[in-house]
Amino acid sequence: MQDDTMPNYPGPLRLDEARSLFGLVALSDAAFTRDGPRADVEYRDLGLAASTQGRIGARHIRAIAPFDKETGWHWHDMSGHFNYVLRGWIRFRFAGIDDEVTVHAGACLSQPGGVPHNVVARSDDLELIEINMPAVFGTQDLGPTAVAGA
Length: 150
Known about the structure:
Layout: E1 41-45, H1 48-51, E2 57-63, E3 74-77, E4 80-87, E5 89-94, E6 101-104, E7 108-112, E8 117-122, E9 127-133, E10 138-141
């Protein structure tokens, strides 16, 4: 089957010619850690950073304590940020969107990089997959009133 509307990448390729490395991270291969910015969740690296030479990162994130306060307005220095909720729900505010955005289990959120946002609530059983481009990125905190109209 050929689809001429799709980009043309070279191929077929040998594995050693591919643009990313082959990788498989099983649950037993990567433990959850608290090595992340939030104390109420834990993180598990899914290996995409190593497979893509840092172009893409992926983490499995799950709640370990009740949500007790908003994250505050902040933005991430990245080109793409995606969240797929496995269990529970998470609620955001985004600059430029009037209503709160709630993402429930089974839903995927494409969160534009660089756009200020605030996590305002989540379920105690939240579990999600977060994908970022690039894998390593900066986060800039904003003042509580820095986002006009949000």
